[in-house]
Amino acid sequence: MTNIEYRMSNNDRTFHYIILNKPYGVLCQFSDSQGRPTLASLGDFPEDVYPVGRLDYDSEGLVLLTNDNELKHKILDPKFKTPKTYLAQVERIPDVIALEKLRKGVVIEGKKTLPAKVKLLEKEPNLSPRFVPIRFRKNIPTAWLEITIYEGRNRQVRKMTAAAGHPTLRLIRIKIGKIELDDLQCGKVRNIELKDLDNLY
Q1: Catalytic residue at 77?
Q2: Which of 78, 140, 144, 173 has the most CB within a 10 Å radius?
């Protein structure tokens, strides 16, 4: 893996900008005292890069890695409201009322979520099967939602859909700001193009 190098003019520091498609069942960190799979199993990364935010053990998709603390701040600080987009497979077919509830915000842990963009997909997205199948319940249909949130609370999308009566069965993050997962395969990594860095900043 060849990392993009961007040198600051004042201190000549090398910054790295990498995205990966995190598989299900991998911790979003580089070490674990219990011996569970971590990001370290997915490639040889520069020693000083860390994930920007978290993606749950049981969630999949886009993770951004960098040693650029200014960029981390811009993405994680709630005041910047960096959009993050997910595909969520949920139990049952949400009706108009449930979708509007998710869009306007639901109360989780005593605090209402910010308004979100929510779209019910007409057909199942073209995704690789998860190596651990989701738990299907007999005679209960599932649906796929595209959800964009503007904050980053713990397990937020899962808690939102549950509060609306539609527990999430599978969750994939596909976009942070204007950085997209595109066709990056599960478990693979690639560099962020410099034009996309301009969009993040």
Answers
A1: no
A2: 173
Backbone angles phi, psi at 87, to 5 degrees: -105, 125
Which positions ≥6 away from 18 have C-beta within 8 Å?
1, 3, 45, 49, 64, 65, 66, 189, 190, 191, 192
- Mean pLDDT, residues 172-190: 93
CB-based burial of residue 40 (10 Å sphere; 0-12 exposed, 13-18 middle, 19+ buried)?
A: middle
- Residues 119-154 pLDDT 10s: 999 999 999 888 888 887 778 999 999 999 999 899
Task: Give the whole-angstrom CA distance, residue 88 versus residue 143.
Answer: 8
Q: Which residue out of 44, 56, 95, 198 is catalytically annotated? A: 56
Domains and CATH numbers, the chain: 6-77+180-192 (3.30.70.580), 83-176 (3.30.70.1560)
Long-range CB pairs of 68-76, under 8 A, 24+ apart, other chains included = 68/15, 68/16, 68/17, 71/17, 71/197, 71/200, 71/201, 74/200, 74/201, 75/176, 75/177, 75/200, 76/52, 76/152
Q: What is the CA radius of gyration of the chain?
A: 18
The tens digit of pLDDT for each residue in 38-63 reads 999 998 999 899 999 889 999 999 99
Tell me, what's the pLDDT at 36? Answer: 94
